[in-house]
Amino acid sequence: MRLHPTRATFHVALAGAAVASMGVALRLGAVVAFGGAMILAVAVGRAFALSAVTRLRAAGFEMVWSTSKRVLRVARGETVTFGAELRNRSGDEMRGISLRAIASSMLEAKVEPETVDLLPNSRLEVQVSVLAKRVGRWGVHGMALEVRGIPAGGEALYEVPLMFANPFGVEVFPRALHALVTSPRGGRSRRAAEAGRAAPALGEGDEIRELREHVPGDPFKRIAWKASARRGRLIVRDMEREERDVVWLMLDASVELWAGPEGRAPLDDMVDEVSALAARHLARGDRVGLAVLASRPRTWLTPAAGASHAVKIAAALASAASMIDVDRCELDEWEIAQRVSEHARPLDPRGLHDIPKSNLDLLATRAQALRARAPFAPRVPFATTSREQQLRHYVAAFGIEVPPRVEGERDKTHATMAGALDMIFNDKKARASVLYIFSPAPAPTSDILGVIRRLRARHVDVRWSLPPFERAVTPPEAGVTPTRVREVVDEAVWLRAVAARTRAEKILRRLGVRPRVTERRIAG
């Protein structure tokens, strides 16, 4: 247990040392004794503080969340407030300062009040406010504070940092889908309208499209007998079938698209736009499919409709922010193990003291057992060994963020995208009518261009949204010459992003694809 002296303690110790040195220089025993007493008082205060905090923890000084839920769903950009309770079961009075939540950097957490005074055998409610900056599954791992005992004579001499390990999950959904999946409506009120848009194809329906002459193969039930009698030849009725669009949403989730501040990266805006389109088409009753791609296919949801499908799409977009897979994460197995060890130590009853630092097999086994306390139940991450897979699964289950890989995956992603587009083209059960692609434009020699030409020939409406790279940096001010290195770099990056977008739009227009820049739906 670490103890940190307060400012007053530091001043007393410094003054005691100065008085003792002066007494030695002047050869005054009483002055030396007085300075030594001041230093002794600081040492005795440390022993008393250590004893008081030990009694405090042994008696049951704890923190519990006021809500019974282990996971809280919020929309990106939304601030949500929930409660926590501090309980002092000891017979000592205490003061806690710098009360704060230990949470992912993708969450901006604030605790009020930051200073609490707890009487013996009492409890106190505090409020935790969390601002969700990025879609994903992020953890609030507990709370921390510095404890100061409050002796009868005045201010305490030492602060003792304490942490309460009590995992809590925050699942951040895109704003458009969050409103849809959390709607309390059910039953008939969640059904889409029965009417659809008229399709150019023929089919069974209630509306007559046209009357025409009978040709071999027409069923007899379609013969219009009265019209045939008037015209003296067989006439059949062509009925108009009402159908809905089959919409595909294809999202490029390459790691380099997360570059930029939390909430302002290109992929932040792309995820919001995908969710808005999904909500709009699902509300119309269209069938919506989702493909989230990187160097490997990450999510493949076949077209479907309804509120349950909206939940699946929202969950898939939330997992798009995950960097836990070995081919997307900058951390190797040893670095992942270190993060697992730091997080699991306060959760483990033995504090992991029985596990040697070099024994990753035993650490992975213990982490697998502790995962029962995790707020999330994510998919098993991709890894090269089962041991590393267990360690990465622990990190994902508790919402511990990891840094993305420095090397991008653009070429591999576009190769994966070409295969995904080919699957959509060859799908005969649900022929796509509208295809939205959210990705940087492909190279002029990419296989993607050939598949898009075939889709366009089948009258599929292809729409391509380009990532807003220039929004992740500060644009140059008109007429202002940059003076600092950062301003010069920002201007160069911004100009390069604008030029790349202009070239990409030309490539897409040649294919007959409507290019556009992804909208920003939440202010940075």
Automatic annotation (TrEMBL):
Tell me which UniProt keywords the record has, alphabetically: Membrane, Transmembrane, Transmembrane helix
List each copy of the DUF58 domain by range. Answer: 210-320
Annotated coiled-coil positions are none
Can you tell me where the transmembrane regions are? Answer: 30-53
Q: Which InterPro entries match?
A: DUF58
What is the designated name of this protein?
Answer: DUF58 domain-containing protein
- Organism from which the protein derives: Pendulispora albinea
